């Protein structure tokens, strides 16, 4: 009922105005703003409040400049390829879950247990409706990793030797999300779901990706070889 309603259009237009020229247009055919609210997002250095907007096909979030008036650094995640995973309470962080997608994955925390339940239920319902409408199965083929926060690693998570300090900076592998030193993440690999350019990966992931790439190449070469052989036999029989 809200799809083509004036109230829905006004709500979406207001969200667009809050992001200003730095944000992307959000109005689209059959798009509905389901709900909104502030969630604590686990960022690289520490948890930070972020404004989230749940639509029936996308999840939008950004930095809060003026609450309910102005936001920036808009991020848009397509719900079609999203999955959710509950996170157990730990220390001072409660009511959390992971939002996992091919382009970006991260952990968020709600203010209360009920709020967590409601958020997860609404997102799940939107995902299920999308899959039902578009005839797609509920699965994420290749998800972006949830980054390990900086303060969770005092030493490189790969070599276990290099200690981090002002000079020896932390780096994240874009494939596994581990915090590593520069020597353990000095290689690049193209991960199309994350970027159009090669991104930083750790040595372990690089070797794994390289081996997988080699296996694919060998398989293709063998297939081509068999195809050429069949063509030769066919041509010889016809000749």
TrEMBL record:
Keywords: Metal-binding, Zinc, Zinc-finger
GO biological process: endosome organization; endosome to lysosome transport
InterPro entries: PH-like_dom_sf, PH_domain, PH_domain-containing_F, PH_Phafin, Znf_FYVE, Znf_FYVE-rel, Znf_FYVE_PHD, Znf_RING/FYVE/PHD
Domain PH: 32-128
Domain FYVE-type: 150-210
Any one Gene Ontology cellular component term annotated for this protein: early endosome
Family annotation (Gene3D superfamilies): Pleckstrin-homology domain (PH domain)/Phosphotyrosine-binding domain (PTB), Zinc/RING finger domain, C3HC4 (zinc finger)
MF terms (GO), sorted A to Z: phosphatidylinositol binding; zinc ion binding
TM helices/strands, residue ranges: none
The protein's name in its UniProt record: FYVE-type domain-containing protein
Organism: Helobdella robusta
């Amino acid at each position: 009922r809200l799809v083509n309603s004036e109230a829905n259009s006004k709500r979406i237009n207001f969200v667009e105005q809050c992001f200003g020229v730095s944000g992307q247009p959000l109005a689209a055919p059959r798009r509905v703003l389901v709900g909104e609210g502030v969630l604590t997002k686990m960022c690289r250095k520490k948890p930070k409040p972020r404004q989230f907007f749940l639509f029936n096909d996308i999840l939008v979030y950004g930095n809060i400049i003026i609450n309910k008036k102005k936001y920036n650094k808009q991020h848009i995640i397509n719900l079609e390829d999203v999955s959710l995973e509950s996170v157990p309470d730990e220390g001072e962080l409660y009511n959390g879950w992971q939002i996992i997608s091919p382009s970006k994955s991260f952990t968020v925390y709600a203010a209360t247990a009920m709020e967590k339940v409601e958020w997860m239920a609404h997102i799940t319902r939107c995902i299920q409706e999308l899959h039902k409408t578009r005839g797609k199965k509920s699965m994420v083929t290749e998800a972006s990793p949830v980054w390990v926060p900086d303060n969770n690693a005092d030493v490189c998570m790969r070599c276990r030797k290099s200690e981090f300090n002002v000079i020896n900076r932390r780096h994240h592998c874009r494939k596994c999300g581990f915090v590593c030193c520069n020597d353990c993440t000095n290689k690049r690999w193209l991960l199309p779901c994350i970027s159009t350019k090669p991104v930083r990966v750790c040595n372990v992931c690089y070797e794994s990706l390289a081996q997988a790439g080699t296996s694919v190449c060998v398989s293709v070469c063998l297939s081509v070889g068999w195809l050429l052989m069949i063509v030769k036999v066919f041509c010889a029989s016809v000749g």
